[in-house]
Amino acid sequence: QAQLVESGGGSVPAGGSLRLSCAASRSIFSFKAMAWYRQTPGNEREWVATMTAGGTTDYADSVKGRATISKDMAKNTVNLRMTSLTPEDTGVYYCSAALGGSVLWGQGTQVTVSA
Fold it and tell me: What is the per-residue pLDDT across 65-107, written as a single tens digit (0 to 9) for each?
């Protein structure tokens, strides 16, 4: 069974940037799509960005212009770079992947943005 592991989370001041990575146990190019979500306690999980197998990207309005999702072929990772971070970007960020009609999830990585 494929597994996803996120990394790159941490604390960053407002206005800063982070790059999150998602490593997969199988080729990321075998997935129909990969995406990033985020969630804070008591809130619903929020979609952030998606990249399809064909390379098409899409972003939530809340991060459009500040987020970039990309794939690193050499490292077999999907990455999310976010800039101009605000405290509203704080949350646990999850990587997901669609394969064979199922959706896989990683364990998440914490991002904390201080004012």
Answer: 999 999 999 999 999 999 999 999 999 999 999 988 899 999 9
The answer to whether 82 touches 37, Cβ cutoff 8 Å, is no
Q: Where are the beta strands (DSSP E) in the chain?
A: 4-7, 10-13, 18-24, 33-39, 46-52, 57-59, 67-72, 77-82, 91-99, 102-105, 109-114
Q: What's the pLDDT tens digit per position in 47-57?
A: 999 999 999 99
Structure tokens at 20: 């999150």
Distance of alpha carbon 1 from its chain centroid, rounded?
20
